[in-house]
Amino acid sequence: MALEQRIKEELEINPALEEGPQDDQDEGDERDEDLEASDNSMDDQDGGGEERDDFDISDYIQDDEPDYKTKSNNSGPDEERTEIPIVSGNSSQEILLSQLGLCDFDDKQYLIATHLIGSLDEDGYLRRDLSSLCDDLAFSQGVEAKAEEVEEVLHVIQTFDPAGIGARDLRECLMLQLVRKDPRKESVRNAMAILDQYMDEFSKKHYDKIEKAMELDDEHLRDAISEILHLNPRPGGSFADDSRSSQHIIPDFIINNNDGVLELSLNSRNAPDLRISRQYTKMLAEYSKESNSRAGREAVAFVKQKLDAAKWFIDAIRQRQITLIRTMDAIMNYQKDYFSEGDEKKLRPMILKDIAEIVQLDISTVSRVANSKYVQTPFGTFLLKTFFSEALSTDSGEEVSSREVKKILSDAIGAEDKRKPLPDEKLMEILNQKGYNIARRTVAKYREQLGIPVARLRKEL
């Protein structure tokens, strides 16, 4: 998206740069004649005693091949191109304000309510205290309101849909949702008691303490916990998901496995065909014939400057494409076993320096490519930086990728008994038994990198 925006900006500020298919060869021959006439005319003039830098406009235009051809066009002329429409729903404020119209509020209460709705965060919570909101109302709306009045209006907003909207903390959010459930159900009553009296124990999953304090058996505790876990801790999240435009990852590279042969291609569908304006080239030739005056020389200099900028931009885009394809080709060949089979255990240890030495580029250049580009493979679409990993040594002295260890760690946690999750010490023993000599703190580091909580927080009833 940033590249598309940059190209769009350059097209707007530089009239010598155009977007569209390349001219035909016969047009290119005619352009050569214009350029030759331009060069001859400029050579015959001394510019009124002022020195002029020599230049050859044919350096900017190449007729034997397109100036810019980074976009692969594999579609036929009759092929219909369709765009996927993105549906955007109403915002959270619009939906809440529509419910506000059903309330029997006076003018003052209505202003308070609209201010409260505007103060909700994207999760649907009211994070600011009531006294601060009263000050805001006084300064921005000119409404003098007490905290009790604001809280009274807030309680009405908390009856709006979705359930839990307008809560000031997680506990209140969950309680607002539970009060709408059937109070005759024992599991609902127990869930409300847990949130009311044992919220801290519940958040830390100290279920044994809750069970003992409330004198519940395993079945009743499990039902109550299930009621809570099925609640929505982010009632405003549904609004955000509806109103936010869907963002689809468009891979920069595509790797296909053709009967065991890996084929790499650059996805350039969003990059337009760029070329130097033929009109500007003819303009340069015409101005150069009439550049006896100072105004004529200034016109020639202006057109030449625009042509220089257009050529530089086209060359920069071409060089970018070359750098990308060279870097990705090196990564693909380095990790050939993985891209052929898709087994993460086949990933070799690879750091930025390894690829930088292969492509003979600076490490920072490889880093920028790895941190922002995606590749589509037969096994999914991935960010390039996920293929870089540190090296670890096994008992046999073989170097393996840290990602391989993370895969084994993730599989072990996935297969554990959730009633008795494996602590880091046990996970360390499992890895050591498989020949990976790593310490407990390394296991904890990899677990955190995988986004997996500690054993106590993975416990389920």
Topology diagram in text:
Layout: H1 2-13, E1 17-19, H2 25-43, H3 92-100, H4 107-118, H5 130-141, H6 147-157, H7 170-178, H8 186-197, H9 199-203, H10 207-214, H11 218-229, H12 237-243, E2 253-258, E3 261-266, E4 274-276, H13 278-289, H14 294-334, H15 336-341, H16 352-359, H17 363-372, E5 374-377, E6 380-383, E7 391-393, E8 399-401, H18 402-414, H19 424-433, H20 440-449
Parallel strand pairs: 2-5
Antiparallel strand pairs: 1-4, 2-3, 5-6, 7-8
Helix pairs in contact: 2-13, 3-4, 4-6, 7-8, 8-11, 13-14, 14-16, 16-17, 19-20
Short description:
With 461 residues, the chain is α+β, with helices and mostly antiparallel strands. 52% of the residues lie in helices and 7% in strands.
- Whole-Å distance between the termini? 46 Å
Radius of gyration: 33 Å
Shape: flat
Q: How many individual β-strands?
A: 8
- How are the strands of the biggest sheet laid out side by side? 3-2-5-6
Low-confidence stretches: 24-53, 60-88, 241-246
Largest sheet: 4 strands, mixed
Helix content: 40-55%
One letter per element, helices H and strands E, the order comes to HEHHHHHHHHHHHEEEHHHHHEEEEHHH
Average pLDDT score: 77
The total count of helices amounts to 20
- Classification by helices and strands: alpha+beta
Strand content: 5-15%
Can you tell me the number of structural domains?
3
